[in-house]
Design a protein that fits this description.
It is a single chain. The protein is an alpha/beta fold and 321 residues long. The chain has ten helices and 15 strands. The protein has two domains: 197 residues, Rossmann fold (3-Layer(aba) Sandwich); 97 residues, UDP-galactose 4-epimerase, domain 1, CATH 3.90.25. The N and C termini lie far apart (44 Å).
């Protein structure tokens, strides 16, 4: 039986990954913060199958204790500060968690558990406003906010430790991936929750920004499969996980409200404070390398993903009434 350590196990990706690994008969260890509710709803249904340990990416001693105790075959770092606007308010903390936290883990693998294989969740934000709209693993880096800078620092650290210390470490360069477990601060979940509340008479309208903004959106459970596949290869390498397709915020509204028998145009309003001008270029990821080398495939379409999310939100809210 393999042992896997997941940081950020109670988040969207961490919870789906833990379920995937449990289905493959792994022993799954999850690192949780002492100020976090380890009964988080994302892992509530299978919490008894997990080994939960207290730790913090800011505290190397706590991470070391977990790694030395469990000697994981695989380590997945899915923890971090992920909301881009907040990184402007606390750039130093963002860098300490997202960049230095990764270095702490890499040093511990080198010194304490050199056979562990390491996955780092890297963001497509490292490319920023690149010259090319289709972004590949070779696209030039152009981070444009503290969050992206922190993620790029971690990404480059992976490469350095891989080359100089022969550690099996990979970066998964992740484009937007959503699900029923996505945080309500993200626009897709904001829309599906809003549509469900309006359908149930809990709200009368939903304020959004630019409905023509576009993104490359995929389904989170498909993406965690790609994470696992990266650590099963003979050679460590970095891969983009993306759909290669763009969809607008307006499409999310059409599908979510339409699934509940509503016309979004009657309920969605434009909030100037939320409005952001459309980008001159629309960026998307090229998943060709992951598809050809890893055999990675996506099983849930964009449309079906939004339907799953809105039906989930409607069902959960209905039970509370």
């Amino acid at each position: 039986m393999k042992t896997a350590l997941i940081t950020g196990i109670t988040g969207q990706d961490g919870s789906y990954l833990s379920q995937l690994l449990l289905s493959k008969h792994y022993s799954v260890v999850g690192m949780v913060s002492r100020d976090h509710d380890i009964g988080d709803q994302n892992i509530r249904d299978f919490r008894d199958k997990l080994i939960l340990e207290y730790g913090d990416l800011l505290d190397k001693t706590s991470i070391e204790a977990i790694i030395v105790k469990h000697k994981p075959d695989e380590i997945y770092n899915l923890a971090g500060l992920t909301f881009v606007p907040a990184s402007w308010e606390r750039p130093a903390l963002t860098y300490d968690v997202n960049a230095m936290g990764v270095l702490r883990i890499l040093e511990l693998i080198r010194d304490k558990c050199p056979k562990s294989r390491f996955f780092q969740a890297t963001s497509s934000k490292i490319f920023g406003n690149s010259k090319q709209e289709e972004q590949t693993e070779k696209t030039a880096y152009q981070p444009e906010d503290p969050y992206a800078v922190s993620k790029l620092a971690a990404h480059l650290s992976i490469d350095v430790f891989r080359r100089y210390f022969a550690i099996y470490a990979v970066s998964g360069i992740l484009y937007n991936h959503e699900s029923e477990r996505r945080g309500p601060e993200f626009v897709t979940r904001k829309i599906t929750l809003g549509a469900a509340k309006i359908k149930l008479g809990l709200e009368n309208s939903l304020a959004l920004g630019n409905l023509d903004a576009q993104a490359d959106w995929g389904y989170a459970p498909d993406y965690v499969k790609g994470m696992w596949l990266m650590l099963q290869q003979e050679k460590a390498d970095d891969y983009i996980l993306a759909t290669g397709q763009l969809h607008t915020v307006r499409e999310v509204c059409e599908i979510a409200f339409g699934e509940l028998g509503l016309d979004y145009r009657k309920f969605v309003t434009m909030d100037e404070q939320l409005y952001r001008p459309a980008s001159k270029k629309n960026y998307y990821g090229c998943p060709k390398k992951a598809e050809e080398t890893l055999g990675w495939q996506r099983e849930v379409s964009f449309k079906d993903m939004i339907k799953l999310m809105v039906n989930h939100d409607f069902a959960v809210l209905s039970k509370r009434l």
